[in-house]
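Hey, can you fold this one?
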Amino acid sequence: MELRRLFPDQATTTVDEVASGLGFAERAPADRPYVALNMVSSADGKATLEGRTAPMSAEVDRELFHQLRTQADGILVGAGTVRIERYGRVTKRPDLQAKREREGLRPDALAVIVSRSGELPADLPLLAEAPDSVRLIPDLATGMAGLRAEGLRSLLCEGGPHLNSSLFGEGLVDELFLTVAPTVAGAGETLTIVEGQALSGALTLDLMTVPEAAGHLFLRYRVS
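Sure. Predicted structure:
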């Protein structure tokens, strides 16, 4: 799949090149994992909880979504999103498992689920497909510290909107990957990609790269 790099240098690139060697783990602080937040929005700023990947946008976006999962020790997600989207094993494809190993990571990404109740549906595919690759944390403050003590250096967060808001509000987002799609499709009510507590102050977003494909923009920011 070919993308067009708009910034800093206009040139063609590939999904694999865009989502390789990002070095999340190398920048991990001592007290918590490095957090890269992955969001998908439409041009009008809306996102849907139902039909997250297939109806949201194009094949190139779905591939980038899976390729980004090869860059972090674990995938951080809210319990509500896990239930709605029926999460299964995070890393299924052999080529992506091999890429994770080349990046110095275990073949399967750990699924880190923020659940205040500490419970998930017993019929969740993830629990059947990869029960040893699941961690439940009741809150971010103690949960992040515990994950770092366990040896996790990096997390790719996949939402939902209340978790995104908490991460920003508590200053726990180090990078942001934002896909801007021309349209959002899918059943059900649409929600904003950040919903919950108000931010205590302004965020500084430093734009690093902007690839484009099929009318979709893929923006990578450093957050401070």
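The helical segments are 15-18, 59-68, 79-85, 94-102, 125-129, 140-150, 161-169. Let me know if you want another pass with a different chain boundary.
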